[in-house]
């Protein structure tokens, strides 16, 4: 990479963090460290009053336990609320949504979730309100982005390959302003990444559709920065049944593991294992960094995993 690598940790305080979150944080941290880049901590607290302070506190406790430091972002809950909260940037999100609405990229939708489930053969919105021309100012309705048929979005991988994502199939006409009037995740995440200058996004493979949605939004906004970013969509840590971990899975929460183990070495080992790295002798974050650095220099297989 020719320019300074800038990435972010972006946890959502909707419950206690689990080992899957830790893997994402560690991989992001390792990639930024390898490229001698800059790392932001961005806490996605857009839901405001519904965000529990205990979940916010858990983020800082677990980052300290893992030994992950960052260059920019809040040092604790108080600084989050006073200087870094997404609530402080909500006017910027609304302004961008207004721009998209006036440019003809959006439509109002009065469908409830149950109606969408009833009329859709998949999890995607079936397009019920796209051509109704509903009044945007009416209450209790969502605003959606018009995604044309056969919309293929490309993102750039770490090896400069292009990964194509079918946004029409993966997501369809997605929500950008929720029924309660709040901006949706896709626009908030994009605007934050643009303002932070993020050019490396590390996220789970389950968020491929979100990557496509945000790249599509950047195109609608005539932005050229975000499409030039690098994207890593990593494997997910799963439970014993092979299911994706959730924040309700208490046995895998970092809080539980911290009480059970004297150090986070088991998390470092599990992260290395998921990356097909030698993990048996890893005890500290420095050990993990050393193994990762060696693999990045020598091992093309690791790079293929990061694509």
Structural account:
The protein is an alpha/beta fold and 307 residues long. The chain is 40% helix and 13% strand. The strands form 4 sheets. It has a 3-stranded antiparallel sheet with strand order 3-4-7. Strands 1-2 form a two-stranded parallel ribbon. Strand 1 (6-9), helix 1 (19-34) and strand 2 (38-41) form a beta-alpha-beta unit. The longest helix is centred in the first third of the chain and has 16 residues, at 19-34.
Descriptive tags:
307 residues, alpha/beta, three-stranded antiparallel β-sheet, two-stranded parallel sheet, 12 helices, 9 strands, 40% helix, 13% strand, globular
Q: What best-fitting shape do the alpha-carbon axes yield? A: globular
C-alpha termini separation: 15 Å
Query: Overall mean pLDDT score?
Result: 92
Give the fraction of residues assigned to helices.
40-55%
Count of runs of 4 or more consecutive helical residues: 12
User: How much beta, percentage-wise?
Assistant: 5-15%
Largest sheet properties: 3 strands, antiparallel
Helix and strand sequence: EHEHHHEHEEEHEHEHEHHHH
List segments where confidence is low: pLDDT < 50 over at least 5 consecutive residues. none
Radius of gyration equals 20 Å
- If strands are numbered along the chain, what order do they take across the biggest sheet? 3-4-7
Structural classification: alpha/beta
- How many extended strands? 9
